[in-house]
Amino acid sequence: MTDTTMVFAITQSGETADTLAAMRESQRKGHPTLAICNVVGSSIAREADGGIYLHAGTEIGVASTKAFTSQVTVLTLLALYLGRMRHLSHPAGRRIIRSLKEIPEKIRSTLQGQETIREIAEKYYKFRNFLYLGRLYNFPVALEGALKLKEISYIHAEGYPAAEMKHGPIALVDEETPSVFVIPQGGIYPKVMSNLEEVKARRGPVIAIACEGDEKVAETADDVIYVPEVEEYLQPLVTSIPLQLLAYHIALLRGCNVDRPRNLAKSVTVE
User: Fold this and answer.
1) 236 and 138 in contact (C-beta within 8 Å)?
2) pLDDT tens-place string over residues 78-93
3) What are phi and psi of 152, to 5 degrees?
4) Which of 41, 42, 40 is nearest to 16 (CA)?
5) What pTM, to 2 d.p., does this model score?
6) How far is CA 235 from CA 39, 60, 76, 103, in A?
7) End-to-end CA distance of the chain
């Protein structure tokens, strides 16, 4: 890192030991630090040079969900602020703000699909391995979906970039390994669709997270969970919700405690 590098500590609890240690080390080396944190008055919030509170309310469950959505929102707003200070035009900035203001209604619309998600969970909850695949903005969403399934249902799941599927994960595809594709509309849609078709050609079950009205993906995937269409850079805010709900319903069907998963702590305060 250079002398002009700023370090962001992103944390729900503000007490995670390794994040706190990394932030202190950065400060020791002279780097300004900012915290994106949910818990007011936590160690990281107090010791950072500045920061942004999520104000998401108390995150009761060990496997954070609303904190994740809030973090993505805050990071989007931060990117918008920095963009306006540099090269982002005023009309482009206003378009982003308008799109963000529509997100709560888009999420409410996504939540209306709970019954479909529960039915899909009933179909797949006995499987032991899952693959989650996404590209660009939705690769981190694939990681989040796989993480939630592991955390609360105790099913092995891995998230991969869809572009890397041929470099290993495709070897795992069989009739007993469902693949969850995050495939909303966008510039890379045809490439992700090609990946999806390759999994189907190998008889792998496919669950797709797709935009409303996408008939092409409905013809190919075994099951589809629809989300509203939004700007590509805001897609994680709507595509992550059904993945979290899918993990939730699968966990309930398996008799797991979704709020207090085994072996996990709300805050990892020791190394």
Assistant:
1) yes
2) 999 999 999 999 999 9
3) -110, -15
4) 42
5) 0.91
6) 26, 25, 11, 10
7) 24
Contact 2, 255 (CB under 8 A): no
- Mean pLDDT in residue range 15-41: 93
Q: Indicate if the pLDDT at residue 71 is higher than 70.
A: yes
What residue type is assigned to position 76 of the chain?
T
User: pLDDT per residue over 35-49, tens digit each?
Assistant: 999 999 999 999 999
Distance CA 43, CA 33 (A): 13
Give the angle 192-198-203 at the CA atoms, nearest 5°. Answer: 130
Amino acid at 93: G
* Pairing between β-strand 179-182 and β-strand 156-161 as defined by DSSP bridges: unpaired
Number of residues written out for the chain: 271
- List Cα–Cα distances, 266 to 54, 71, 182, 270, in angstroms: 17, 17, 28, 12
pLDDT in tens, 158-204: 999 998 888 888 888 899 999 999 999 998 999 999 999 999 999 99
- Answer yes or no: are the C-beta atoms of 67 and 54 closer than 8 Å: yes
| Counts for the chain of helices (H) and strands (E), in that order | 9, 8
Please state, in angstroms and rounded to a whole number, the distance separating the CA atoms of residues 9 and 134.
25
Nearest to 229 by CA among 185, 180, 188, 182: 185
